[in-house]
């Protein structure tokens, strides 16, 4: 390695000349005088004393370029992931739209009911209707009598059922009934 002048050393290591002169006065750096009378400094002494200022500067510059390259790759990866997410989102929107359409179709099928009206008998003249009504009333009464073993009408059957199973009342109702009955 060649020896550096004080000006060259200050430029390379980014240190002021006055700082180099102070280190020379303290004796931490040794200088050699060449044939022209110019002081020359060994670069290894500069590295040792000033803890590699030049290296740290180049290291930070290298870190900056490395970081910028990493940032670029991260940005590219994120762009790709964003594109994939947008594609997934579009597919999901399409699927949701399809499901909604199917749901609306099924809902329309479920709510749609054919109008079912009971068949209405044709209009009969008034005279015929009364005779038919009398016949149906008589058949209803005959059926009600047949359903009864004892021969009572439906009204009598209901009354006997009410007597057999009295209606249950709450405590307050029972107290009022006992007061009324007494």
From TrEMBL:
An example molecular function term from Gene Ontology annotations: DNA binding
Keywords: Coiled coil, DNA-binding
Region (Disordered) location: 114-182
Stretches assigned to coiled coil: 68-102
NCBIfam families according to UniProt: rep_pAB02_ORF2 (NF038291)
Protein name stated in the entry: Plasmid replication DNA-binding protein
Species this protein is from: Acinetobacter baumannii
């Amino acid at each position: 390695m060649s020896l550096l002048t004080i000006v060259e050393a200050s430029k390379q290591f980014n240190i002021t000349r006055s700082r180099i002169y102070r280190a020379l006065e303290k004796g931490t750096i040794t200088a050699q005088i060449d044939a022209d009378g110019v002081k020359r400094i060994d670069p290894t002494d500069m590295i040792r004393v000033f803890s590699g200022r030049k290296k740290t500067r180049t290291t930070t510059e290298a870190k900056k370029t490395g970081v910028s390259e990493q940032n670029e790759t991260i940005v590219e990866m994120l762009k790709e992931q964003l594109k994939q997410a947008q594609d997934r989102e579009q597919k999901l929107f399409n699927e949701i739209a399809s499901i909604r359409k199917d749901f609306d179709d099924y809902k329309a099928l479920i709510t749609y009911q054919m109008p079912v009206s009971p068949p209405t008998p044709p209009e009969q003249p008034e005279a015929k209707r009364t005779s038919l009504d009398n016949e149906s009333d008589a058949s209803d009464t005959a059926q009600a009598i047949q359903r009864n073993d004892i021969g009572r009408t439906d009204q009598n059957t209901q009354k006997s059922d009410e007597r057999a199973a009295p209606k249950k009342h709450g405590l307050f109702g029972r107290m009022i009934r006992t007061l009324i009955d007494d």
